[in-house]
Design a protein that fits this description.
Pfam family, one: GmrSD_C
Organism: Apodospora peruviana
Mean pLDDT: 90
Helix content: 25-40%
Distance between the termini: 41 Å
Strand content: 5-15%
Low-confidence stretches: 1-23
Keywords: Signal
Protein name: Secreted protein
Shape: globular
Structural class: alpha+beta
Number of domains: 1
């Protein structure tokens, strides 16, 4: 009897029986929750400072990352499954799981590349004092969890809002979202508001 049960279990594993694991994108540099909490405590808390003059063109996107691939195409390839590209690096097929809302898309046109910390939010939390070259680095940062392939209308719903004004539809993603937001702000030495810090603290407590 025991050997029969073991055989059944081994067969189940071999045939991948059971719930399939949920695909997840893989932006690099997402810290542990304990690290994110330490980083959050180190951030400067102050009201947003908007000197005016914000323009998205002050954060040039998308730049060439490697070969013929620009930032958007690089993230689509990184975060997608079975992504096929043409000679110009444009995705011609594949699938993309949006961790913000749990949707899966098979057309690249349905996918936006979201800046975890929106460009306008960065502008009012310190980036207005940067050079254009530094803002370009920020807007095309593929070495930290700043760029995410997500459902286009969800990204549009987020706009330039910070976590106290907008959170991803999936509460199960709050932990990763907060860890990523904090890591980006910490690395780039951007400020946070008191409301932002309070919300991020609550989101990190879901980890």
């Amino acid at each position: 009897m025991k050997s029969t049960i073991i055989a059944v279990l081994l067969a189940a594993v071999a045939n991948n029986v059971g719930a399939a694991p949920m695909p997840m994108p893989t932006p690099p540099g997402i810290p542990a929750a304990s690290t994110a909490k330490t980083q959050l405590a180190a951030l400067t808390v102050k009201a947003y400072v908007d000197p005016g003059g914000y323009n998205r063109d002050l954060f040039p996107t998308w730049i060439t990352i490697s070969g013929t691939c620009n930032t958007r195409e690089t993230v689509l390839k990184r975060d997608g499954t079975n992504v096929v590209t043409d000679s110009a690096c444009a995705a011609t097929s594949g699938s993309w799981f949006s961790p913000y809302d749990g949707a899966t898309w098979t057309a690249a046109s349905d996918v936006d590349i979201d800046h975890m910390v929106p460009l306008k939010n960065a502008w009012v939390s310190g980036a207005n004092a940067w050079t254009t070259a530094k803002r370009q680095q920020f807007a095309n940062d593929v070495t930290r969890p700043q760029l995410w392939a997500v459902t286009d209308n969800v990204n549009q719903s987020k706009g330039d809002k910070s976590p106290d004004a907008w959170k991803p539809p999936l509460t199960s993603f709050y932990c990763t979202y907060a860890k990523s937001w904090v890591q980006v702000k910490y690395y780039w030495a951007l400020t946070i508001t008191s409301a932002e810090k309070s919300t991020l603290t609550s989101m990190l407590n879901t980890c």
